[in-house]
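In this supplementary section we document a worked example of the pipeline. Step one takes a protein sequence of length 383 as its only input; no multiple sequence alignment statistics are reported here. Step two produces a three-dimensional model, which step three serialises into structure tokens for compact storage. The input and output of this example are shown verbatim.
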Amino acid sequence: MAGILAWFWNERFWLPHNVTWADLKNTDESTFPQAEDLYLACPLAFCMFMIRLIFERFIAKPCALGLKIQASGPQKAQLNAILEKVFTAITKHPDEKRLEGLSKQLDWDVRTIQRWFRQRRNQEKPSTLARFCESMWRFTFYLYIFTYGVRFLKKTPWLWNTRECWYNYPYQPLMVDLHYYYILELSFYLSLFFSQFTDIRRKDFLLMLLHHVATISLITFSYVNNMARVGTLIMCLHDAADVLLEAAKMANYAKCHRLCNVLFIMFALVFISSRLGVYPVWILNSTLFESWEIVGPYPSWWVFNLLLVLLQALHTFWSYLIVRITCRAISRGKVSKDDRSDIESSSDEDEVVPSSQKHHTNGTNGAHGTNGYLSSSPCPDEH
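The serialised model returned by step three reads:
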């Protein structure tokens, strides 16, 4: 074990040339980021999860009920042992052949069986009330942490001159506010990571799991090798769009469609401008070129910048999806209509109809409108 730890914490990987871990030990005069500082995030993540439960129960839920958001979940499918066995053991989306076989076996018509499977799938999805409470919790946290980040960063020299992120690196003392900022962000994403396994599982489970892992890794990585200054810039930049996204989702769940549309457009503008404009020009320019000039490259520098460049590629992809969704919604006239569906709660799968019963419909899938996007975060992670 000692050999593995020594290999993992190899100074020649983590630190610039001629710098050792002993040089970054805390002294009476100065304090530096230590890997063990991050252990505090684990119990705080549990506390944050408990605070979330209290917040959703005593604050978010009354707000939702005041907005006339229904507390009841989707309609439950009637008990049927045969269909339940197919649903749990074989498939949740039976094809045409299986539907016809079940129709003969149960003496039910195909559409009744389709309806049963749709209702049964919806039973595993959270109610609109639960989703509103979750979004309100995230909105509250993002609003608080973004406000805190802005208030903290406007007092720092590296907000106005990113070269300050690299002067005297890595011998940059740890500020109390910076430490609090990092621990709080890390605790929040750890709580989201673990709550994924206790919350109702959604279609984007794996995607969001990867998002949380990537976010936690980047926060941890930048703290351990004391790239925390540029790390604070990255976190604050990403939190800005998340505030608007969660606000738009709450408006969607409350059926305030015009407000939802306005907030979604604001979110799209902030997301695209910050991720495709500010991030590469401000952040990547500093981590790639200014740090090269002032500090010089070393192994963990290459890894950190590779992760940030990959993040930029994801930003580009997500921005493309947002623009495509917005254009589709506008061109099809669905931005202001009230009949849009949220893919988290309504059936977002087209019914499988035998060829003899197929007919043309003008129905739309929620994923083609803005609400289809609002049901989940674009990357996650993003961070």
